[in-house]
Design brief:
Blueprint: E1 12-15, E2 20-26, E3 30-33, E4 36-50, E5 55-68, E6 71-84, E7 89-91, E8 94-101, E9 106-108, E10 111-113, H1 127-133
Length: about 140
């Protein structure tokens, strides 16, 4: 069955190629970065696209899905998926449920796969219960 994505009612924000942003950024819809970004991104329900012209140095990125076509340095966590496109340079430890990397990518780091996407609503449970829902395969002992 084909995967359906409902993007009709999602707002899209674009940081243009001349945009330079330093700080903490939070969003819930969709963000496209084509310029320079330094800081931290907190968007557990948002979709992030880092364009080919983008240069991002982050402490961490947390988003639902992340597509990278440019340069990224810093920790990445995506509840749904991470996709690294051809021509990208990524220096990052990545934690995600689904991961795709193209040919011709300069990647340095480690990838940890989530066993499954958490079915727990982050805002309706205690932090310990949410952490338990985020069990990483690499940490599980048979």
């Amino acid at each position: 069955m084909a995967e359906q994505v409902n993007t009709e009612k999602r707002n899209i924000t674009v940081f243009g190629s001349e945009t330079e942003f330093d700080g903490v950024l939070e969003f819930t819809d969709r963000l496209v970065i084509t310029g320079k970004f330094n800081g931290k991104i907190e968007a557990p329900e948002g979709d992030l696209e880092i364009a080919k012209s983008a240069d991002c140095h982050v402490g961490s990125i947390k988003a639902s899905s992340i597509v990278i076509s440019g340069n990224v340095e810093g920790t990445i966590e995506a509840g749904e998926r991470v996709e690294i496109c051809s021509g990208s340079t990524v220096k990052s430890d990545i934690t995600t449920a689904r991961f795709r990397i193209a040919n011709n990518v300069d990647y340095t780091g480690q990838v940890k796969m989530l066993e499954e996407e958490p079915s727990v609503d982050l805002f309706s449970v205690a932090s310990q219960e949410f952490k338990e829902a985020m069990i990483i395969k690499a940490d599980r002992v048979s």
